[in-house]
Structure formats: structure tokens, C-alpha cells
Amino acid sequence: MGECYIYDHVRTPRGKGKKDGALHEVTALQLASQVLENLRDRNDLDTKLVDDVVLGCVDPVGEQGGNIARIAVLNADYADTTAGVQINRFCASGLEATNMAAAKVMSGEADMAIGGGVESMSRVGMGASGGAWSSDPEIALKSYFTPQGIGADMIATKYGFSRDDVDAYAVESQKRAANAWEKGYFKNSVISVKDVNGLTILDKDEHLRPDATMQSLAALQPSFSALGEFAFDGVATDRYPELESITHVHHAGNSSGIVDGASGVLLGTKEAGEGLGLKPRARIRAMASIGSEPCIMLTGPADVSRKALKKAGMEVGDIDLYELNEAFASVVLRMMQSLDIDHEKMNVNGGAIAMGHPLGATGGMILGTVLDELERRDLNTALVTLCVGAGMGTATIIERI
Amino acid sequence: MAYENFGFEVDGDGIALITWDMPDRSMNVLSQGSMGDLADIIEKIVGDDAIKGAVLTSGKSAFCAGADLSMMGGQAGSGDGSQSKEERVKALYENNLKFNMLLRRLETCGKPVAAAVNGTALGGGLEVTLACHARIVGDNPKTQLGLPESKVGLLPGGGGTQRLPRLIGAAAALPLLLQGTALKPAKAVEMGIATKLVKPGEEVAEAKAWLKEALSQEKVKLGKRGPEVLPAAIQPWDREGYRIPGGGPQDKGGSQVFTIGNAQLQKNTHGNYPAQTYIMQAVYEGIQVPMEAALRIETRYFTKLLMDPRSKAMIRSLFLSMQELSKGARRPAGVPKFEVKKLGILGAGMMGAGIAYVSAQAGMDVVLLDTDQANAEKGKAYSEKLLDKAISRGKSTEEKKAALLAKIKPTTSFDDLDGCDLVIEAVFENREIKAEVTKKSEPKLAENGIYGSNTSTLPITGLAEASAKPENFIGIHFFSPVDKMQLVEIIMGAKTSEETLAKAMDYVAQIRKTPIVVNDSRGFYTSRCFGTYVSEGIQMLAEGIKPAIIENVGKMTGMPMPPLALNDEVSLDLGYKVRQQTKKDLGDKYVEGPADSLIEKMVVDLGRVGKKAGKGFYDYPEDGKKRIWPGLEELVGSNKSTEDVDIEELKKRFLYIQALEASRCFEEEVVTDVRDADVGAILGWGFAPWAGGPLSLIDMVGADNFVKECDALAQKYGDRFKPGALLRDMAAKGESFYTRFAPQKEKAAA
User: In terms of CA atoms, which chain B residue is nearest residue A131?
Assistant: First the structure.
């Protein structure tokens, strides 16, 4: 199996995923196209050499439907020969897309490929693509379906994270993200989303709440207690009878924000990079995906990290920086608890609680974020992972050259 | 042309009046004969140009109460063994699809058909009307409209799972289907199930009026290439552009209905009830496709249910056996019918007050006696409270209340008992007090009168020693709250006569409850078996299993309440006293277990005796839900979580320990009829209804398998799991309770 190198990555800023968000007036196609255009232009890429573009998208319907990756390739004026494919690993789609693109490179199918993702949550609502899991009684009953938020609350209950624990984590995420923005840690990778005249619509993440405090978060009502009481807590205790009841601790302030955005990671063989005069920034050391128990749903990151570490022949301590998508605070707290990871190594520049989680795009974004940070700190290895709907995890280990 | 089960005449306007009126039956039921006639009638309507439309009504006071469940019971389960399973499944599917396609033929016959619903239409009865183009319903307070199949483990297999949601939307239809709710006519019209509410007696005339209006309309093309038909002859779901109210499963609102509905189903049934699961699936899958395909889907799930042993057990216990027992199947024959006109009740506590209420409601004169007039009055006030509640819900009136209260005489004088046909003693569980009141009241009984004791624990034979006529002395054990609990456990003392039994059963029939008959023993049948469930929970606690697991698994077995919460309700000191008594009685033979010291700690050292004290296994905060006492895990040293236990094994322990006790009661002839054992368990202590009762559960597992599993449990958890000789014999012979002890139907009183 060949090696795959990371040559570059960009992401859009994350716009608030509502009608008053700055990116609401920008189509999902534009978000994806501008990422591709930026990757091409800043690397002086001959797009004929890009074999494939793999984009994650979780609700691929409407304007995001019908294989948006190929349509974005066409819209970004890449060579006709560049293929495109849209994939869906729910919240890990962006990382899975990168892994698939990397796998194409490693296997020899592609010499150069782009992985990443796009999601306009303000334009195509979360859940718009439907699906059988929650509504088809055949599978919903068999697998004890509960919504993710209830799963996150189950993790907090089962593994002993209090409301203060999850709120404190959220406050820290906001602080770290604000600090990173202030010091310009993201500036090389965040592109400006432009209008048809080339004027900037948005150049900074819109969702941050740097002034969040324990007090301000304490005022927020838990989001899932009513739904839980009404129906799902009873499902949860059937699946996890050791829990007398579910303590609902998550709310808008300690869960990932709903945002719009897109990401892209440029990958290729050593030879392909050399041909284009590009300098490899890191190599993909290991990749993995795993299924985990679907009712609690969000415990996959620890499992898949162990799997990826094993494939890489590494230990938890061999990783310099960890990046786990902040879908919910308890998900991160649980992975740190399970693998005994110091918070100082985890999500060092904040995460989706502060900046938002544009479902299909996030994986590509956080892979890039941690690569930039490895370079800034001059460290070597990072593990990127996300929890995934229906009980899965996806992970990638990268190593600087 | 004449039909066996239907009248058929065509009036001058070309409207056929089809009157369902099965010969020699008080009620119309869906039978092969009725269906055959209906098929012929539909073809007649289709083929006869002189017929423009039709009205379908009933010649009985009810429209139709549905399928004959005894026939269903025969269809269900294992069959007669002459066919392979595959053949049976195929035959069931095809047979049931035929009925569905017959109703499909009715609704697509091209001519408008109105149902004139002149009385109750349940199950298949309502399904027939749903396949008509209009339902004109008489506003009769006795009329019930509904699809109750799920209550006995079935699903509506005549298109009910398809037409009801198409008519009123899945959100409104699912609760009716899943819970089997029956509606009054006005409510059915309000919900859009029935077309029009009319005065009772005018159903046919109004249905004809509806038809005349329908016949005056311009014909339209049915589909793109279809024939021209009257718009009224097309069901809404067969019309161009039809959308299901509230949206289907792939629409946002519609999908939520299922997402939430699935979760509530799991929460409420814990996956124990296949009927409810299959109803959800039939609706979810069926409403996304055209009607013919939808009916095939429904029939597939219906067939799958009929093959499920749980459905067979539920039909048998919850419907057939319950009905047989309620009708007096266990009443000794040859004793003239006895009627209680005057009833004496000794003790106006909770139980006495409840017995007074249900008896006065049945029209008896009730003397409610207590040692203190204020107590007696308080007992009567209980009826007043219940009646006020009923009035506030529109279920009774001030006149009815006054009439009922006038029938209850609170007193302290034994002389008031003079001429009672029955005296029921409901005083404290104390032999001396009981003996005293027996002696005082017995002489007051009417010449034919009998004496009943509502004791729940003290053996009847012993109590009867205080009686001058022990042959007239019987146990009549009610359950609390008396007005809600359907079961009465009748206990035969050693000397109780068959005649007394017959009389006691006639009394139970008067108050419209369901009797079971058991023989004397400590705890009789229900209290004895029920106790094992709670004890097993305490046993698990003592083993170090986390209390939340015990409680959740208890719920998951289908028991109405988790064991520790239940113990809090009945109070721990009661159990403690029973244990102390048993210890005393058994002496050296008593095996002290970890549960003993646990209960002692809770009761004696901590005073945590249960809900009445505000603290037991749970804490009961004044504002808010009860929570498991946080100190409990430390007290017992809980160290076993889900990784350390097998949840399926815990479930089995809960269910098998009860089933074993029931089988011991059967072996010891405390219970002698399988129906008594199963129905008594479900109605008496809420034994998992999905299993059809403890003996049905053993039959379902198979005696051989059950004995093996219990032996394994006995190895791990103690001798209480050791099966008795009867079970071992059944296992060896490959017998089941319902084959070895098949109830003799001919014994039933006429």
C-alpha cells in the first residue's frame, strides 16, 4: 500500500445556520465550489491531475442532493476529467471523505484527490434527508433508537458528568476558540466566502460566544428533558437498565452549534505532489471506522481511536494532539476519561461548541485545524475523530513530515 | 335471492337494503358463512343495473362485534399438526387475505354503499363499515365503535390498520389501534371516523338520504382509464391527489409521529407485545403504498401474529378464559341460582368501603358495620367520593348517586344485619377479632345465607372454626381498590360446601367481577405467588445487583411495577412480619438468606418501611418524583452492574419464580383449573399479560425446557428454583398444562 500525503487544506468560515446567518444567502454549491477554487488557486493546481473529489454531506437532498461533489467540480471549473462523489457517514462525513480520498491515493486508484465536505444547515434543514432509523418501527425498536441529544445525556449520566462538568467544558471551548481566532491561528486556512463581485460576505466564524460563563450557561434549560420524559428516557433505561433515570445536562450552550460551511483537503502521492511542485505537510498514518452501540450512540470515538492507534502501532501517549468533534460536551469528556487524555492535548483551539458543526464538512475542517496547530507548536502526531449517528466512529492519525 | 345471514331487498329508488341478521345468534359475527353471503351480495350489487347503491345495516341491536375469537384462537398458534409450518402460514395468509380482498371489492364495487350503524361495531364489524363509503351512526349511548384487537394480542386484520389512518391520519389512528380504544358515536363522528350522527332508529333512513344525494351527483372517471362512477363511490384514498391527513412517514410531520410513537411503544411495552409492534409496522409500511399492497402488508403481519404463541396465550387467557370464568364456568352445577338482596359488610375500612360500593352499584341493600359509627360513615363516604368523581366526568348523575347512597346503611349494630343473604367480613387480620364478629353476625343471616371472609392471608379452614356452620363459610378475597380490580379469589375451606361455592359465585356475578376458585393454603393462590416476585427482587439486591437494574428489569418483564417500588407500596414491615412468622413456624428448617438481614436492617435499624413512612427502598420527596434511596447501594454493597449480570437471566428469574410457585400451587391443588391460575395471575397481581399467565408461560417455554432452565437457576441461586414432581413428569412426557389439564368446557353452568 502506498503512502498518502496532505498537501493543503482550506475551509470556509462557519456561518450561523439560521435565516439571519451570513451564509444563508449562499448556496451549498457555492460553499463547496469556493473551497475547490481556493485549493486550486493557492496551489496553482492543474486540475487535470486531480482524479477525484470526495465530499461528505449529511442531508444530500434539494440543492445538496444529486451528488453535489461532481456538481461543485463542474461549477468550480475543474477539468472535466475530475470525478466527484458525495458520501455520508453522518457527522464524520468530512473525515470519512478525506479517508476515502486518501485510500484512493494509497491504493493507486488516484494520484491526487480532494476530500472534505459541505453542509448548508440553514438552507437544507437537519434531518431533511429523512431515513428509516427513527421512524421505521422495525429498526427503531430493535436498536432502541434515541435522538443524539438523549444519547449525550445518557453518556453524562452513565459516566458521571454533572451539569457543571459539561458547562465548564463548554466555557473552555469558547475561550480556546476565541483565543485562537484572536491570535490568528486559523488565518491561513479559513477562506473568505465571496459574492459574485468578489466582495467578502463572511471571513470569520459567526457562532462564537467568547463571553460565555458558567453563570450564563446555567441559565439555559436542558434541551432534551421534555422529549426524554415524554418517550425516550424509557427507551434508554430499557437499553441501559443500570440507569435509574437520565439526567439531562445538555443545552444549546454545551452542544455543537448549527452552522453552514465547507471544507477541502488536498491529498496525493509523493510523486504527484512533486510533479506539481508541492511540499507535503503530513502523511496519513492510519485510518479507521467502527460501529458502536447505537442507543447511547456517541461513544464511538474512544473505540475507533483505539482501533486506529493499533493499526498505526501507537499508544495513546504517542499522540501529541487530539481533535474530537465537540458534538456534545459529554462526548469529549467521555473520550478523555476512557483513554486518559489530558485536556491540554484535546481540542486545544476549541471546537464545535464554540464554532459550530456543519455536519458534512466538519471532519475536513478539524483535520486541517489540528495540522495547522501541529505546525505552529512544532509537534508531530495528531489523532482526529468524530462521534457518528447510529453508533459509529471515524478516526484519522496524521504525522508531520 | 335469499341469503342465510342477510336480508336483501331493493326499494323503488334502486337502493338495496342489506340487513345483517345471523340466524340463531344474538349477535352478528364475522364467520365464513357471513363472508360468503357478503361476497355474493357484492357481486349482485355490481352486476344488477337496477341497483344504484346500497345500505348495509344490522337486524340485531348491535351492528357486529367482530370475529369469533374462539375461531381465531383455533387459527392461532400451533395448528393440528397435519400441516407443515410453512403450509399453515401460507393457508393462514391466503385465508385472511381473502377477507381483506372481499372488503376491497366492496369499496371498489363502483356503486355507493352506506353503512347504517345501528349499534356497536367492533373489530371486524367496524372494519366492514370502514370499507363502506359512509358510516351513518345512531346516537345510542350503548354503541361502541372501535378496533379492540390489540387488547387480546391481535391486530385488525380486515383493513383496519390501513383505512383508519388513511381516514383520520396516523397520529390520531395509532393510539386507537395500539390501545384498542372504543369510542362513543359522537366522538367517532368528531374524529372523522363516522360520517354522520343521527337519531337512534333513523340510521337506515338517513343512510338512504345520504345515498340519494350521492346518486344525484355527476359521474367521474375512476383513474385515468377507469370506468365512470359516482364520486361518492370512490374512497378518499382512491381519489386523484389523495394525501394522508398529517402526512405519511416520509413527510416531516408524519415521520415524527412514528419516531415518537416507536419510542413510546418501547417505553410502554418493552417489546413484549408483538401485536403492538406489528400494528406500528403495518401502519408505517402500509400507508406508503396503494391499498391492495397495503392490505397484503397488513395480512402478512396478521398472519405472523397468529403464528406467535404469545398471541395465542393472550387470546386464550385475556378473552376466552376470562369470559368463561366470568360466566361461571367453575360454578358447581345443580345449585339453584342464588341472589344476594341484602349484604352485610363487617369493617368499613378501605376494603369494606369498596365492597359496599360495588355491591350497592349492583342493586343490593348494603349494611356497612363498624365498631364506631364515624368509621362506618367514613366507609360510606368512600362511595360518595367515587360517585362525585364519576359525575364530574359525566359518567353518573346526582339522581343515581342519591339512589346508590340510599342503599348503604352505616351502622354499629349487629341487629341491622338481620336477614342478610351474605355477610362479608373485612376486619383486621386477627383471628380473635374475626372469630368474635363471626359469632355475632352469623345468627343474623337469612336461612339460606352464607358467610364470607375477605382475609388475604389467614387460612379459611381455621377461621371457619368460629362458625356454627362451617359448610356455609367461604373465603371471598377482594383486591384493592375494589372498584377497579376485576378479580375475586374464592377460597374453599376444608368444610365449605359446593352449594356455598355456587352462592358465592352468584354474588360475584351480581357485582360483575371475575371469580377464580382456590383451595385453602397459606396466602391462598395470588398472595402466595405474588410474594415471590418481590422476594426475588430483594434477593437480587442482597446479591449486590444495582437497584436500578433490578427495577428496570422488573418493568421489562411486563410486570406492572418494579419489585422494590412494589415492596415500598405494600410496606416492608409487612414482609418482615411474614418472614418472622414463617421463621417461627418452620423453626430449624428455615434457611436464613441474605435477604433476611437486609430487610431487618431496613425495617428495624433504619425504619425505612416504605411509602407510608416516606422512606423505604425509595425516597419520596414531597415535591417531585420518588427516587431510589441513594444510601441503598452502600447499605447492601451493590457492586454488580450490567457488565456483571445477564439481563435475560434476571428477567427469567422474575418470571420463572412466579411461574414455579403457580405450578406448585397447581401441584398442591391449591388451584385446580388452568384458567383460574392464569386469569387469576393476570387480574390479581398483574402477572405479565403478554405471556397469558404463569402456566401459559411454562407451556410456551415448554415443560422440558422450563425444567432444564429452572434446574440451572437452582444450581446458581438456590432451591427455590427447583421444579416440582408435576413439572418433571410433564417434562418427561412432553406435556403442557393446557393439554394435561385441558379445562372441561361442559362443566360450565348453562
Answer: B250
